[in-house]
Specification:
Pfam families: polyprenyl_synt (PF00348). InterPro entries: Isoprenoid_synthase_dom_sf (IPR008949), Polyprenyl_synt (IPR000092), Polyprenyl_synt_CS (IPR033749). This is Geranylgeranyl pyrophosphate synthase, chloroplastic-like. One of its GO terms (molecular function) is geranylgeranyl diphosphate synthase activity. The chain has 225 residues and is mainly alpha-helical. It has one domain: Farnesyl Diphosphate Synthase. The protein is 65% helix and 2% strand. It is built from eleven helices and two strands; from the N terminus they run H-H-H-H-E-E-H-H-H-H-H-H-H. It has a two-stranded antiparallel ribbon with strand order 1-2. A hairpin with a 2-residue loop joins strand 1 and strand 2. The chain binds geranylgeranyl diphosphate.
């Protein structure tokens, strides 16, 4: 996907090393593959979607760097390697994530070919919304503030999953397909349930529902998807 060439090693070296460390650390590349597949599915050229695919992958990566920071989940490992802040320090990791976020939008704006400026502006606007206080950031802040609370329900857990995970996946597809297909069902409508449950610290579906019910829910959501 040529992410290697998207962020080159240049001055200031430390920040670009840190950006590249996480960007090129592997990962399943689900977001970018979805983006390209969606484009091809509706008859578009792969090359049209490539900058958007790199951008969503870059945003996904920067969100993981933030998520791993000591002030968030304080994780030592990501993608089988030491987390960005473990290697480069917290200050560099924070700035590398910020720079990756900025790069994602710059890259869409400068590298996308064959889109009208109207669609380009709409694409960038949609993506920005998915990242901000109604998107990834919303999911993370709710996750943080519900942590440790008892009496947290499935609806709140779904809110976190939708905002932390589904929203960027949805954006990866909708950024490309939105104009072409009449997609009316929002991810919020998918698998809406109202159960309640208890959690100790981090919420998960198995903690709320038990393994068996979680499996059933996963199968239901999968077939709806
Ligand atoms: C976006 C400004 C801004 C800040 C970030 C920390 C945060 C706010 C949001 C949390 C986002 C987060 C960590 C969501 C989890 C997403 C997720 C499903 C991670 C695991 O994805 P995989 O397994 O990862 O596809 P790989 O490594 O394969 O890419």
């Amino acid at each position: 996907m040529a992410l290697e060439n998207a962020v080159l090693l240049k001055e200031p070296l430390i920040i670009h090393e840190s950006m590249r460390y996480s960007l090129l650390a592997g990962g399943k590349r689900v977001q970018s593959m979805l983006c390209i597949a969606a484009c091809v599915l509706v008859g578009g050229d792969e090359s049209t979607a490539m900058p958007a695919a790199r951008a969503v992958e870059t945003i996904h990566t920067m969100s993981l760097i933030h998520d791993d920071l000591p002030c968030m989940d304080n994780d030592d490992l990501r993608r089988g390697k030491p987390t960005n802040h473990k290697v480069f320090g917290e200050n560099v990791a924070l700035l590398a994530a910020d720079a990756l976020l900025s790069f994602a939008f710059e890259h869409i704006a400068t590298a996308t070919k064959g889109l009208s400026s109207d669609r380009m502006v709409r694409t960038i606007g949609e993506l920005a919304k998915c990242v901000g206080s109604e998107g990834l950031v919303a999911g993370q802040i709710v996750d943080i503030f519900l942590e440790g609370l008892s009496d947290v329900g499935l609806e709140q857990l779904e809110y976190i999953h939708i905002h932390k995970t589904a929203i960027l996946l949805e954006a990866s597809v909708f950024l490309v397909v939105d104009d072409i297909l009449d997609v009316t069902k929002s991810s919020q409508e998918l698998g809406k349930t109202t159960g309640k449950g208890l959690v100790a610290d981090k919420m998960t579906n198995p903690k709320l529902l038990g393994i068996e019910k979680s499996r059933e829910l996963a199968e239901k959501l999968n077939s709806e998807a």
